[in-house]
Amino acid sequence: MERLHWIRHRLQRLLPGDGGRGWYSPASTLSTKRSLDPPDSPDPGGRRLSGKRRSVTPRHAPGQSQHGSSRNYQGNGIRTTKYSLLSFIPKNLFEQFHRVANLYFLFLVLLNWVPVVEAFQKEITMIPLAVVLFVIAVKDALEDYRRYRYDQRVNNTSTSVYCGKQRRYVERRWAEVCVGDLVRLYCNDIIPADMVLLHSSDPGGVCHIETANLDGESNLKLRRVVRDLQRQGLDFSPETFSSRIECENPNNELQCFRGYMEHPSKARVGLHIENLLLRTCTVRNTEMVVGFVVYAGHETKAMQNNSGPRYKRSKLERRLNTDVLWSVALLLLLCFTAAVGHGLWLNSLKNPFFLIPGDPPPLLAGFYMFWTMIIVLQVLIPISLYVSIEIVKLGQIYFIQSDVDLYSEQTASGVQCRALNITEDLGQIQYLFSDKTGTLTENCMLFRRCTIAGVEYPHHDNAQWLEQYEEQDTHSRPHTLRSRCSRKSLSCRSLSCNRSSVSLHTLASQSDTASQEPAHAHGAFSRTMECMVAPDPLLQLKLQELPRPEGAAAAELSYILDFFLALAVCNTVVVSSPTKSQHVVPVPRTPQRSLEDMKLLLQKFSLPRFPHAPSSLHPDTPAPAQSPAPSSFPAPSAEGAGLWEECDDDDCGEELFYESESPDEAALVQAARAYGYTLQARSAEHLVVALPGSAPLTVPLLHLLPFHSDRKRMSVVVRHPVTGRVVVFTKGADSVVMELSRDDAAADEEEEHQAFIREQTQRHLDDYAREGLRTLCVAKRVLEEAEYEAWLKKHVLAETSIENREELLLDSAQRLETNLTLLGATGIVDRLQDDVPETIEALQRAGIRMWVLTGDKQETAVNIAYACRLLRPSDQLLTANCESKDACEALFSRLSEEIHRWEESQAASVGGGGVSGFTLVIDGRTLDWALGAELQGAFLQLTQHCRSVICCRSTPLQKSQVVRLVRDTLGVTTLAVGDGANDVSMIQVADVGIGISGQEGMQAVMSSDFAVSRFKHLRKLLLVHGHWCYTRLANMILYFFYKNVMYVNLLFWYQFFCGFSGSVMTNSWALIFFNLLFTSAPPLLYGILDKDVSADALLGVPQLYASGQNSEAYCRTTFWLTLLDSFYQSLVCFFVPYLAFAGSDVSIFSFGSPINSSALLIILLHQVIESRTLTWLHGAVLLGSAAFYYGFSLLFSVLCVTCNSPTDPLGVETHAMSQPLYYCVCVLTTVLALLPRVSYHAFHNTICPPDTVRAGLMDRLVSKEYWTHVGQWTDTPAPQTLSVNADPSSTTDRPPDHHNVLS
Amino acid sequence: MMASSYNAKEEDGHHSGSVGPGGAGAVKSRKPDNTAFKQQRLPAWQPILTAGTVLPAFFVIGLIFIPIGIGLFVTSNNIKEFEIDYTGMDPDSPCNMCINSTTPCRCSIPFTLEQPFENNVFMYYGLSNFYQNHRRYVKSRDDSQLNGDKSSLLYPSKECEPYRTRNGLPVAPCGAIANSLFNDTLELIYYYPNKSSMSIPLVKTGIAWWTDTHVKFRNPGGNNNLTAAFKGTTKPENWQNPVYELDPTNPENNGFVNEDFIVWMRTAALPTFRKLYRIIQKKKDNLTPTLPPGNYTLEITYNYPVISFDGHKRMILSTISWMGGKNPFLGIAYITVGSVCFFLGVVLLIIHHKFGNRNNNADIPN
What we know:
The structure holds two protein chains of two kinds.
Chain A: H1 2-14, E1 53-56, H2 88-96, H3 100-113, H4 122-156, E2 158-163, E3 168-173, E4 182-186, E5 194-200, E6 206-210, H5 212-215, E7 220-224, E8 244-248, E9 259-262, E10 268-271, E11 276-277, E12 282-284, E13 288-295, H6 301-304, H7 315-348, H8 362-376, H9 383-401, E14 416-417, E15 431-434, E16 441-452, E17 455-457, H10 460-475, H11 477-486, H12 492-495, H13 501-513, H14 523-526, H15 537-544, H16 551-569, E18 574-576, H17 595-605, E19 657-659, H18 663-674, E20 678-682, E21 686-690, E22 696-708, E23 713-719, E24 726-732, H19 734-740, H20 749-771, E25 774-783, H21 785-800, H22 805-816, E26 821-832, H23 836-845, E27 849-853, H24 858-867, E28 876-880, H25 885-909, E29 918-923, H26 924-931, H27 936-944, E30 948-952, H28 956-970, E31 974-978, H29 984-989, E32 992-996, H30 1003-1006, E33 1010-1012, H31 1017-1055, H32 1068-1078, H33 1081-1089, H34 1095-1100, H35 1106-1109, H36 1116-1141, H37 1148-1170, H38 1176-1199, H39 1212-1217, H40 1220-1247, H41 1251-1259, H42 1263-1275, H43 1288-1292, H44 1299-1302
Parallel strand pairs in A: 15-27, 15-31, 27-30, 28-29, 29-30, 31-32, 32-33
Antiparallel strand pairs in A: 1-8, 2-3, 2-4, 4-13, 5-11, 5-13, 6-7, 6-12, 8-9, 9-10, 14-33, 16-17, 16-26, 18-19, 20-21, 21-22, 22-23, 23-24, 24-25, 25-26
Chain B: H1 6-12, H2 51-78, E1 81-85, E2 105-113, E3 121-128, H3 135-139, H4 143-146, H5 150-154, E4 165-166, E5 169-170, H6 176-179, E6 185-191, E7 197-199, H7 210-216, H8 226-229, H9 259-265, E8 273-280, E9 294-302, E10 312-318, H10 328-355
Antiparallel strand pairs in B: 1-10, 2-9, 3-8, 3-10, 4-5, 6-7, 6-9
Helix pairs in contact in B: 2-10
């Protein structure tokens, strides 16, 4: 029962999103690669719709019978099970016999049916096959049953579908939903099928969906009602809907949907992904939506994207396979020897009457004997090893996942093993490729400083505050960190539970009873402290002067205002607040304020004119500075912390949560908020922004040109709330925006000013980059109405076009984003994750070469590298930036020479070889050259002399190319770790892909082999679990080979005394069970639980990792030594009893009895010798195995009178065990067989102990001495570390009380 | 801390729509249990084999093995054994004439025992180069038939082919093993110093395992009327008498439970083997040895052909000890292994003193 539970448990782990997270379970493991290269992958953009398409008409519509056009499409029921009750046995068997191992068994079974070669009774040879088939079948059945139950649950979920006959919505099961149905969903409902959004209760015709079930991203995505239908307003009537939808055939592209809707009037409206509600997503923030099902069941995009767990082949397994081939060769050799021997033996006999007449001539008999021997010696090929390895890996995964050290309180998740069979690769990593953002850093962006109009605002308070926070952080981590990550998964449902129930009550009561009162009470509680931005005093001061700007100050002020307005509006942030279930502006209301208020505001803001309007360059005198509400203005305050809570409007004091796809957007909105520019709500067409001291203003949002990786920027087109003009705000990467803001045409004063701003900004940007900040530029463009109209026309065209829509939209956006006026730039800090420097140092000392591949700027990357101690101050930086291939080639050779020279001088002075302290920094363009076929070699040679490599400005494709190049050319084991979609390709290419479940959604995790929540977990995962998994598995595999060869050779030696006739000296049951039952459990336990070195030692002395990297535990030498030892042991185990019984009246089975039993003892004790840990579990299993063997053979020899015809073992064991000779033989055999191995270990471990043994010995010391030894060890650098950090505390990462011992 | 616990909940349930204020109450943490087993911290014994830890074991083994070896060696040496090859390959041998004889042939070989044989003396016949362990030979029997199963008696197992039926009748006992039953008769005659002779009484029973005679081998239909029981069967091709007339002197020792037959049916493990033939029981008075030294004659009824496979036939007289028959190997092996262990222990001791302290005081006991 426990085992069953365990299997279940691991199945749950196996499918990462069990329990509601994923409505998709892997349809079949066969289609693992489907999502990567779909069979009919359409080339993006170029695909003609006319090729394959489907046409869907509403089922309820008049004139459409129930068997309308939708009949041909699949229903919504899903079946992810592989088998049905009836088909299970044949189908499962069919699948199982696709495995080579099972075919081998089958071959043996069939072979045994051939009378001339028959070795055992037929039923006995079937046992191994039956056992293996049974075990796998049970596993498959359990898996399938789980899927079945899951399908049932999904299919039986009810939803409301419009019924044409009853003219109302009726409850239906999901499975009964058909293509062409109209489905009504409410907030928080899960979408049952892919449907086109026809109606939303939202007046703006939008609806939010959460795609967490699909891709793990918890931010809300906007979906729009089909454009024409929106006008129908609130009263959407399903009866009258009779349009036809034409769309492409089902595919797995989540980001793409093309089609059009044809109304009865033959008018066509284009459809795209924004109109499609995807199955398994959740409706959020929208009361009610109605959708029109276009894809159902397995044809939905969600189902098409299903992919099962990943199967990779580990390095160890590849090695194992070659050794299995060796044992095949050995088997053939033994069989051939026997065949020849039998032939010769037959030939030498004249006419023995004990031979059964009718024996074939010697040659043929030898041939038959060959096959008989294959049956007899079948165990030599360790087929059961494969099953055992699978079981062991499951056990290893179980322990990795249960490691409490790898559990992160912050994200409430531990390590997730998604690939089941590469645990041991974790212990062999030689190259580690890491993303930077979100992997080394938190990817939790904090606004740090900004430059506006060429003036830098350092935000010193902010910096101090951050430091303070970090200190605080260590004390009050649980609370603060929790609130930080809560941002990640906000949604209207989780909002209310986002804080403790106490505060929820407080909030509720407050909003009920005193909605007009400012709700200051809860402000301090729930606001994420980290998001706080302490405004810069200077900037604050300038803003304060707002009412009375003069001259240049006014111009600057307008820059400042626009800058913050841009920060507040130029984003895709979704606003949510705990007190409103609907945080989208319900109705785009025109001024809610009284006209008087409005007037005042306008007066206040009309003063600073925009530079583009020449008439307002020198503004008039300010309007009445005494606004009716002076106190409402942000007052500069000594405590920065209070600043952003200033407003006492009823809408203002309330908590707002900003959710965004990229964390820096939220940080910027947060920053704008600190200065009083609060984004309060957004709808598809409007934004509500509270400006300092004013009531919230509605900003009409005309267009949103979302971020695109090619453009590297995003823009919004809004009507300026104050001036009423159309303004484009653009925010993007500095290189791009600076380029676009260059305008050579005009050279007037204003332009000069711009040029000055650009120059200053560029300088500040460089500073920021040096500081390791992420930079973003903000720019704007004021459009004349005519200009706007002209652009709009083309844009609408682009939007409505069905074909090439993406490209046209891109063009359209690029047309708009020209002639920009640079407003300023922001510097955002991305803090390093906890313990990253320590982790990197440990990994480097473990001999892992670390490469950082980032899309960031070079300066930022280098800076972060210093911060995380990837680079040390003493390191020499080699920078490779070149413009052409030739330059690149020259550079490489120059750098190589430089290294060479340095190394020579080093070798002369120190005499130590190894890797130098060089670090190569290479940028994207140079990397392109370097990855080319011609320079690959030079590049790799160069990098091999460098301890680390930093690739900046690299694209996702380059990342994967780099990994592939290193992996394939150098033949090393690689690990890639990343957190974002841009790391997916790299993660998939590497031998081991690790995803960090961070802020950027789950794509990286979905494609990874292991998912961790923090970078620091890599340390234990690799150094401890990796090492253990590798050593355990390697030792287990060697043990398996040993065990099989040792036992099988006993049978082989006997052939020399039975005329090579294929006789065995044991009854065949014991023979078959020997491997299957008696000696199968200990190696499994050994593979799961053995610890050669304690976790503490592995963490304290990372150099121990090298043993796995160099494959020390399982290499050619150890394999052949093991084989040699097993030959020796089998010789001893056979010939000691032989000599003891030679010439006596011993019968076959009586002869086999001591051999078998001493073989068992030897094999078990061999395990004890090889084990490095023996717990009570080991003891129990070892004793259990021995007891099982003796119990079985004794019972068998007592009870089996005629059960095993023709040769019954009745009385054999009892007789043998009643004789002292039996024990004499067993003891002598066991001791003699194990003597060499024990002596070898004793000599080796004493004279030249391997590192792992030294560490194991160290573990036994009392703690004080222990740390002295660790210190000694780490002070004498292993070859792979060149310089050892001088800081003793960093070398060991131990509790403080140990430090004094070290220093 | 309530605020900190909601996340686990949230991760788990995506389908629950309504979350009330009490939602934070029911929390299921995914945090792994911090138990010794799950965290792999079970108390463990860590055997690291170093010179320091191994050398006591070596000394102990040496000290135990050497005395055992001496004991075994002495025991083996005290066993008296006499062996005589009566194949008759040597032209001078009295049995040479019987080699090619087709009719029953008698020959007698005189021999002399130098030493007295005390206690029960076991008389064996030995065959060499006889592969009783050949795969197909071993299987050529039907244990059900031998167990007295009536249907198997008349319809023997296929394994017996081609010794399953003869002349249309089922063979009882079937199979190659039974067919090749050893059928020489050996008798011992002792010549007193006064030249008078005496046939030494040979006991035919008690030579097979108890389980064989009482459980494994049974006559069909009880032991009352064997002739009737075996009606409808025929004797194996090479046999002179049917199975129910194997021992004309003792009706209890006939049929499948005939002990000579049972001993033969327990196939030997090695091509050179001996099988217990008769027991010469010790004298009641315990004063005279069972076989006093002196002249004996082995009277052989020579039936069994071994020339065809270059085999040899021997007659062995042996006393027996607690460790079985005479075999000096075990004693020597024990002494050797014990000495090697002792030697290794000394070497390890030296190594331990030379290297042991270098390795972080490896001898600190666990």
